[in-house]
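Summary for the steering committee. The consortium agreed at its last meeting that each partner would contribute one worked example illustrating the joint modelling workflow. Our contribution is presented below. We chose a case with several input lines so that the handling of multiple components could be demonstrated. No manual editing was applied between input and output; the record is shown as generated.
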Amino acid sequence: MLIPHPLLGLRDAQEFTYLGDANLINRPDPNAPNAEAMFCDYVFLRDNPAGVHRELWYHEQGDRSWLVVTRNTVTHEILGAELASDVALAHREGSK
Amino acid sequence: MKFSGFKVIKEALTGHKGWTPLWRDPEPQSDYDIVIVGGGGHGLATAFYLAKSFGQARIAVLEKGWLGSGNIGRNTTIIRSNYLLPGNEPFYEFSMKLWENLEQETNFNSMVSQRGIINLIHTDAQRDAYRRRGNAMRFAGADSVLLSREELREKVPFLNYDNARFPIKGGLMQPRAGTARHDGVAWGYARGADMRGVDIIQNCEVTGFKIERGKVLGVETSRGFIGAKKVGVAVAGSSSRVMSMAGMRLPIESHVLQAFVSEGLKPTIPGVITFGAGHFYISQSDKGGLVFGGDIDGYNSYAQRGNLPVIEDVLEGGMALMPMIGRARLLRGWGGVMDMSMDGSPIIDRTDIEGLYFNGGWCYGGFKATPASGYAFAHLLATDRPHDTAKAYRLDRFAKGYVIDERGAGAQPNLH
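What follows is the complete predicted structure of the assembly.
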């Protein structure tokens, strides 16, 4: 698999390590009244879709950036990649 | 039709005209007492034990493809009970005891072959860890032998003992472990269940659950609605997909695991051998092919095929361990989709929906568990209580903090 890194172009997926669902960016508020239940969901439960999946990849053998890669889990086709920091910033702007 | 030595000789002399199909191909009825979703090893074993050991009738097994087309036909056929933790080891030892009697119980040759498994030791710390594991196994009634380097060399002289990075210093052996013919296991359970009146319905994909007021009433399928008092889901690999139709999210990711077989060779490898430094395990099938595998690819996948980097990694592990296999040609490689659970251990439990039961999260260790998984799931479905050896496999153990983290890798499915 080749991952289209937004800064470095097409890179071999072997250079990356995989973490999982991109929703892991959205850490729950530890001060929320239901924080325990929300963290249980956050740590353990996954949507695990068959089809398009947004997921976190870390460019460990490269520029050490975190990417959000959009990939089809049935065909392994990679549909796009963004810097995870951009995704996290956009999410923070969106939640303001 | 009953299999026996006499029958084999009789058929050989009369032109093999008396063999009949091993199971019926029935039309689905409008409703059943118990519907099992998933006609793989675990689903078929569940139906078999429900009918045989728990006296249940009116059971159907629904399979979306053909019988045994999933992971029961894709694994590396290893059976063993060499676990460490008290939540796991008694269950796998129960499974081992069922394996030892499987062929008598099903009257079908599943080619259970107890040739032993050896986990190799490469460091002093690993020897300590394996000694502890061996003792834990004995506490649960299993067998284990700690082999010195010299004892090991007598059994398997062909390993690379003096590898500069990972010298081999001994091994933990379970003599009663071994392999079984994976398809034969599915066929044996299917035939045994069918003989006891279970309807095995192939090409029947579940497309939804009918749930009213928190109670399951049946399943929608590609062949129409089928009513059921109880529904047991045993579809490891597709668990998240199926259970999402009941509105559930699971502590599971689906990952692809690859396996490989070489060309047929003369008897070379006596049992199962696992590399303790990398992730590589190998055995030799009765046909002569070397059957081996290693790590999962490590990213979510439903593709039933993997990528080249992991193939290279597995083969490098093999070459480091036994350089002689470099002369053998690789015949085939394939992939299966695993339910990777968040602690590396399975789930056999009720759900919050009345009448809906779940069996899954087997990671890449489901094959060896097939008999005990079926028995424990049948026990749960028939009595509404967990089997003694499967009490720890609760769905709520993640929320409650009772995870069974055999590998000590934490909530990280792609590391188990």
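Chain B has two domains: 24-77+183-251+343-400, 113-178+253-341. The radius of gyration of chain B is 21 Å.
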